[in-house]
Amino acid sequence: xxxxxxxxxIVDYANESVIPEVLREPxxxxxxxxxxxxxxxxxxxxxxxxxxxxxxxLQHIIFLGEWQQETEVKLVVDGKKHKIxxxxxxxxxxxxxxxxxxxxxTWDQEASFLHCYLDPFFLTHCALHHPCxxxxxx
Length: 138
Prior knowledge:
Elements: E1 9-11, H1 18-23, E2 28-31, E3 40-47, E4 50-57, E5 60-67, E6 71-77, E7 80-86, E8 95-97, E9 102-107, E10 111-118, H2 120-129, H3 131-137
Helix pairs in contact: 2-3
């Protein structure tokens, strides 16, 4: 997972063709891209053991992984290294990677992922202008 010295690739997850390009696989099982949603997309991915190069996403990513067997995940977020062990049927793990933060990861077993890509400007707009956020956020 060493940085090759190259600048991280900028990734716009609003573009459906980017997902297989970044992951170097045709892993997309189903997605919301064709639904015409602009600020939020969902993608269900099934991937062999492997990883992603260092990237910077233009959207926040919320993801849930489903692991068939115990899996070691090595994650580097904004230069900070994390080693995480995932177990089968572990359903309570939700991970968030903020937009504009360099990230790369590897995993040593096949996994399924549900990704939710959120446009950061849309999220900010909702937080600032929706009437319910006033009662939630003060």
